[in-house]
Write a structure and sequence with these properties.
261 residues; 2-enoyl-CoA Hydratase, Chain A, domain 1; 7-stranded mixed beta sheet; 3-stranded mixed beta sheet; 10 strands; 42% helix; globular
């Protein structure tokens, strides 16, 4: 068993555990709901690019520690940045998310807790998502002045459709696991009495039993049927955030008040 541990900021760390044909990536910053700093996104992208180097790994599992997934990016860190720095941070997020999306082997996200904003996008970048009674997903970016890139929007539209995508952003609400399953955002729901970790490993083992050629063909075929993601160039979007609303939105988040737009 090979375990790689990378400390990023404060108590934030990301581990890659490779054993029995599984590559298990764990986001660990539980005191901050596993919210990701920019350095953590950069590290996550690096880990995704290293996974294919081990030919023994057949399935990737991504999860969060402490009964969580990831609440997305660290908004408090955003509040200390300039708009240009935040745009660079979003590019780092997209690099990490796209790196998981591009992995040639099956990927499974264990969404055992909140998955909001970029955390939701990371889950959507995986082939399958497993929810639990703790699951909460959504795109509550309207209170922050974040303007989603076309790639971010496409992932949600591809899975849920245009109207539900607008609903999530218009209302900022988070879906519980029942509604997430009804909307197609999660493929499986772990029964309350079952252990989510065992459940996801059992599913991964079942995937491992299938023909690698069949798995590769369907993954490549689905990607080919959908519009190529690389046609949606991020540089078409001048900024990921609004220069007026974003500073007010992040400051309101830090001060735990309603933003004044």
């Amino acid at each position: 068993m090979r375990v790689t541990l990378n400390r990023v900021e404060q108590d934030g760390k990301i581990t890659l555990q490779e054993s029995s044909g599984l590559a298990i990536v764990t986001i660990n910053r539980p005191h901050y709901k596993n919210a990701m700093t920019v350095n953590m996104w950069l590290e996550l992208a690096d880990i995704a690019k290293r996974i294919p180097e081990n030919p023994k790994s057949k399935v990737v599992i991504i999860r969060g520690s402490g009964g969580l997934f990831t609440a997305g990016s660290d908004i408090k860190e955003f509040s200390r940045m300039s708009v240009d720095q935040v745009n660079d941070a979003f590019k780092a997020m997209e690099e990490a998310i796209s790196a998981f999306e591009a992995l040639p082997i099956p990927t499974v996200a264990l969404v055992n807790g909140p998955a909001a904003g970029a955390g939701f996008e990371l889950a959507l970048a995986c082939d399958l998502r497993i929810g639990t009674h703790k699951t909460k997903i959504g795109m509550p970016i309207g209170r922050l002045g974040i303007t989603l890139s076309k790639k971010f929007i496409k992932r949600i539209v591809d899975l849920m459709g245009p109207s539900k995508t607008k609903d999530l952003v218009y209302t900022g609400r988070l879906l519980d696991v029942k509604e997430a399953y009804q909307w197609g955002a999660v493929n499986y729901v772990v029964p309350v009495k079952e252990n989510p970790e065992r459940y996801v490993i059992s599913l991964a083992k079942r995937i491992q039993e299938q023909s690698p050629a069949s798995l590769r063909a369907v993954k490549e075929g689905v990607a080919a049927v959908n519009s190529p993601m690389d046609r949606l160039l991020d540089d078409e979007l001048e900024s990921y955030v609004d220069s007026v609303d974003f500073p007010e939105g992040t400051q309101a988040f830090v001060e735990k008040r309603k933003p004044h737009f």
